[in-house]
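Data card: per-record layout.
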Amino acid sequence: MVRLAMLSFWHVHARDYARQAKEHPDTEIVAVWDEIAERGKAEAERLAVPFYESIDELLSQDNIDGVIVDTPTNMHYEVMTKAAQAGKHIFTEKVLALTLREANKIVSCVNEANVKLTVSLPRLNDDYTLAIQNILSQGLLGDLTYARVRLAHNGAIANWLPEHFYSLAQCGGGALTDLGCHPMYLTRLFLGVPERVSASYGHVLGKEVEDNAVAVLSYENGTLGVVEAGFVTAASPFSIEIHGTAGSVVYGLPQAKVLLKTSMGESKEWLEYPLPSSRPSAFEQWVAHIQEDTTADENIAMALDLTKLIEAANLSVQHNSPYALHALEA
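The structure for this 330-residue chain is written out next.
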């Protein structure tokens, strides 16, 4: 049995990960720490486990094998390096850190301590993503020229997002840093790492962080990737579109179907592409890495690229110009 501690319930998905840990046959939650003691005590009582006011005391416990980190993003570096140095395996919510420099230091600590790190990038494991990867691997779109991935919800206009999600200090950003992570890592998956990022942020409701965002990823060969996210959209389906010199594939416009049109085949019409089975969740993969003594190399590499792209987007807005990825401090 892998014994886990919850480190904070700041993130909106913290209870989801606690539920996954309780439902997994090989894991159990044995402790809670939270930077807000009152919240942590309430969650510990709900889970019927001890609450630790000191994170150092919790991490010193021999009966804890790993931690689920859902702290404010600006605490990721401190908390995860401490956890790694204490020999605890780490599962965390995206982004890995506020900057590439911090993210690289976290990974370095993880490697030195030989603990298992996995970052929750759930849409990498979904059936539509795997179907699109199959299409791209067969070259059915020819040379890729454009990709667009959009994910938005009404969290700000319907007031269901917690107020601390609008704190620039805690989050490092708004709609793009939080929700936009998903279309960002998917665009990175489909197109690779770009040369530069140009972003534009909107503040529809006048929040401290953006509630409406677009980032354009530019590649040396002229390919463009467009990432869209927002907290102020009443009815916006999650959608993907990828275009190339020989065809196009779309998903979620608005049906949850992968539709393909390619000149490489007998049919020139739009056809529904079959969906494979989804892969195990990021949490299940993390537990398997712990049990099998393997490492989440692809996941960690994608998490580092995601941090890099989000940091570049934020710097693009600050400088009001495209930001080259090679200029980031590693």
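Known properties of this structure: The two ends are 37 Å apart (CA to CA). The longest strand covers residues 144-152.

See the next section for split statistics.
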